[in-house]
Design goal:
Elements (H helix, E strand, L loop, with lengths): L5 E4 L2 E4 L6 H9 L4 H7 L5 H13 L1 H25 L1 H17 L8
Antiparallel strand pairs: 1-2
Helix pairs in contact: 1-3, 4-5
């Protein structure tokens, strides 16, 4: 039986048959988390798949880094477009998040 640790679906790369992106796995690993910690954080991703995704990344590093950069640029453009279309909504949401953080004592009140 052959395991597929990385699957291309819907314009993105996923860890096996899960909905967790390979980029999520790799960013977690690059931030210092171990494969075991990553697998614990994402119970739908078996440990072997985490290792497989990391191995795939290391074998295709330049391509993967370019893909990650491209998707980040697309996400940023999409976010900017959404915010430009309804700036009041995003201002309200930022205010609500700030208020929730104050209630949870995560940061000091916003002036």
């Amino acid at each position: 039986m052959t395991a597929t640790y990385v699957q291309a679906r819907d314009g993105n790369l996923y860890a096996g048959s899960t909905r967790i992106t390979v980029e999520t796995i790799i960013r977690s690993w690059q931030s210092g988390r171990t494969p075991e910690e990553i697998a614990t954080s994402f119970p739908s991703v078996p440990l072997a798949t985490v290792y497989g995704a990391i191995a795939y990344y290391l074998e295709h590093k330049d391509e993967m880094d370019a893909f990650f950069q491209e998707t980040e640029e697309l996400d940023n453009a999409r976010q900017a477009s959404d915010e430009a279309a309804d700036p009041e909504f995003y201002a309200r949401m930022r205010q609500r998040v700030a208020e929730a953080r104050v209630q949870l004592n995560l940061e000091s009140p916003v002036p």
